[in-house]
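Record filed here:
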Amino acid sequence: MIAEIAKVMDKDFFNISFSGGVRYSQVFGGQQMIIVDGKQVTQWIPGPLLEAIQKPCVINIDEIFAADPDVLLGLNSILEPGTRAIMTPIGLIKVHPECMIAACANTNGRTISAQFTGAQKADDSLNDRFSAVEMDYDPTVEAKILEGVKDKDIRVYIQNSLSTLRERCRINNINFDPSTRRIITCMRSLSVGQKKEIAFKMAFLNHLSATEKAKVNME
């Protein structure tokens, strides 16, 4: 979605992932060995985020709450409306006036998730710098994906089963994400001849524990 916003605004788009416990130096920069006039010298080089913020662009920070706490704290001065800059060993780097920064996450950053193990609790000073927008899975997009299934009865079965599973997971507080990505996995099973019930079970239900399966009661 953020990429589409950049396209509409006719701005360059940069996606920077914080997944995998990304380190401060990987985001903001650090000392690197470079060649100057044929000699090796050590020089502080800005990281990808600091390179991007100097341009008129749209930046998406993906999985923002998966990074180390020092990385998240390092964002504060960049995101502060009155500052929009960060001090580095090579001087002050300012955010371009036409640079917009967004972020995506599976949590709201206020708790440690039992479901998304890489997501950390963030400092409220970071959360205060964002306007939060909750987004659910888009049924229109999922219906478009399922158009690849020619049999209408199978499409309806998958859609209805998925809707029921999501509702029962919510009602029973089951930490499981029946995601759009799993629909694609389900379709792969269908494409090699699996029955719709088996394909749905392999993509969704088999990832639940025995207790969770009993609660959703879909087998």
